[in-house]
Amino acid sequence: MKHELHCRGFAAALLLAALPFSTARAESVPLRLVILGDSLSSGFGVPEGYGFAPALATRLRADGYRNVEIFNGSMPGDTTSDAATRLAADPRGYSADVAIVELGGNDMLTATEPAVVERNLNWIIDGYRREGTLVVIGGMLSKPELGFVYNVTFDRLYPKLATRWGASLYPFFLQGVFGHPALMQEDGIHPNAAGVQRIVAGVAPMIERNLDAAAARRKRVDARQATADDAPSAAPARFPF
């Protein structure tokens, strides 16, 4: 798998990108929340300002999370392979304190082997966890037409990855939305503006818990750095005159 060849490079570049933030970070520096997904989180088909990212930003501000910078790196049509390719090409651009990984729907719609989907997602999450990024996985469910074996294998990969990497799992990104005409666009695949609001309402508490944990981690890092800066320097070695 070509993405596996870049795994160390991706993780290393993410770590380097995080270094300026991991030393003496002031509280004024916002936490960076990155959304890595497909059309479900890109704002596809809804009026500008009503997509997942702006709706989530509004919710976070209302809940008191005002020191958060959101970067929406979602691209309509992206498969897990496409997203991995983008990360390999620009790891610094996707560096984050918290990352929402919402991928796999397009793989499923094209009946991509679950093992391939799992391998790609594993590579993506591995890179983030090596950096210390907290990950929220937006899960997907397969359509019944793909058959029992595919359904079971595909649906199990998200809980498996969450357990493996200690990531938070929102089991189905379209939970409470899919199958409800009032919350879906006419294509029956993408949420409308009301559906986006429903998604945000469901997943926001999980995202906020991860932002809290990231903020606490930042304080611990800053405290350690301050302690190191205040520590007395070692006495110079005495020359043997």
Notes on the structure:
- Helix content is 51%, strand content 10%.
- It is α/β, with parallel strands linked by helices and 241 residues long.
- The chain has a single domain, classed as SGNH hydrolase (Rossmann fold).
- Strands 2-1-3-4-5 form a five-stranded parallel beta sheet, with helices on both faces.
- Helix 8 (148-165) links the parallel strand 4 (134-138) and strand 5 (168-170).
- Helix 2 packs parallel to helix 7 (114-131).
- Residues 4-8, 15-26 and 234-241 have low confidence and may be disordered.
Task: Based on the model shown, name its key terms.
single chain; 241 residues; alpha/beta; Rossmann fold; 9 helices; disordered C terminus; SGNH_hydro_sf; SGNH_hydro
Question: Any chance you could write out the topology, listing elements then pairs?
Answer:
Blueprint: H1 2-5, H2 7-22, E1 31-37, H3 39-42, H4 52-62, E2 68-72, H5 80-89, E3 98-102, H6 105-109, H7 114-131, E4 134-138, H8 148-165, E5 168-170, H9 193-230
Parallel strand pairs: 1-2, 1-3, 3-4, 4-5
GO molecular function: phosphatidylcholine lysophospholipase activity
Keywords: Signal
Protein name: Arylesterase
